[in-house]
């Protein structure tokens, strides 16, 4: 089981790195075609959305010229289902909701699909200027030493998380980065006080310099099994 988990983690990391290399900076809806994702398309799309701050779809090209894959809205306020509905005539089987979807694109319709999705997202942005940076609703402010396996045990009782049941967001002031390493392009794993690990988006040279305040969610690390933070926003103290 551990060997299978390690292989899945390796494949996921490789697929995410390849997908991020192919992201078009001009697109507001990131469309990535890759043969690396396979059955991990949804997971990879979520990582691309998280790293780019834009909704993303990861597709595999099929032998008949069609495409199949998954889309994720990430932390944006994008109505994914609404955007896909505008290009429904270009797709085969598809379905989902506001935050996630599975879909297929008909042969010969890829370029129109990409253009139509981006047009739909730009229309949503005109109606909601905070579309890509929605306000963060904080559930509680707490000191870092409260983050523990005990907190995580309580936290996991609230699962499963997803649309309609988001992970609680916590805030802690006066944090400091005591160590860091880049785990893929656009994502860093940093060590905070007390040895607490946190994922922090951005390039290594954009990490906080000195004390900072952060809003974050908590989850269990797939590697260590311990509590790990996912920083969703921060500012210098």
Radius of gyration: 19 Å
Task: Give the % helix.
Answer: 25-40%
Low-pLDDT ranges:
none
Oligomer: single chain
Number of E-type strands: 12
Mean pLDDT score, rounded?
A: 86
Strand content: 25-35%
Order of helices and strands: HEHEEHEEHEHEEEEEE
Number of domains as seen in the coordinates:
2
Query: Kindly, what is the distance between the CA atoms of the first and last residues, rounded to a whole number of angstroms?
Result: 43 Å
CATH architecture of the largest domain: Roll
Taking the sheet with the most strands, its summary is: 7 strands, mixed
CATH topology of the largest domain: Diaminopimelate Epimerase, Chain A, domain 1
Main sheet: which strands, in order across? 6-7-11-12-10-9-8
Count the DSSP helices: 5
Detailed description of the structure:
- There is one protein chain.
- This protein has 2 domains: 2-127, Diaminopimelate Epimerase, Chain A, domain 1 (Roll); 140-236, OB fold (Dihydrolipoamide Acetyltransferase, E2P) (Beta Barrel).
- The relative contact order is 0.11.
- It is α+β, with helices and mostly antiparallel strands and 237 residues long.
- Helices cover 27% and strands 30% of the residues.
- A 7-stranded mixed beta sheet has the order 6-7-11-12-10-9-8. It has a 5-stranded mixed beta sheet with strand order 1-2-3-5-4, with helices on both faces.
- α1 packs across α2 (41-52).
- It is globular.
Topology:
Elements: H1 2-21, E1 30-33, H2 41-52, E2 56-61, E3 67-72, H3 80-85, E4 91-96, E5 100-105, H4 110-127, E6 140-141, H5 149-156, E7 170-175, E8 179-184, E9 187-191, E10 197-201, E11 212-220, E12 227-236
Parallel strand pairs: 1-2, 6-7, 10-12
Antiparallel strand pairs: 2-3, 3-5, 4-5, 7-11, 8-9, 9-10, 11-12
Helix pairs in contact: 1-2
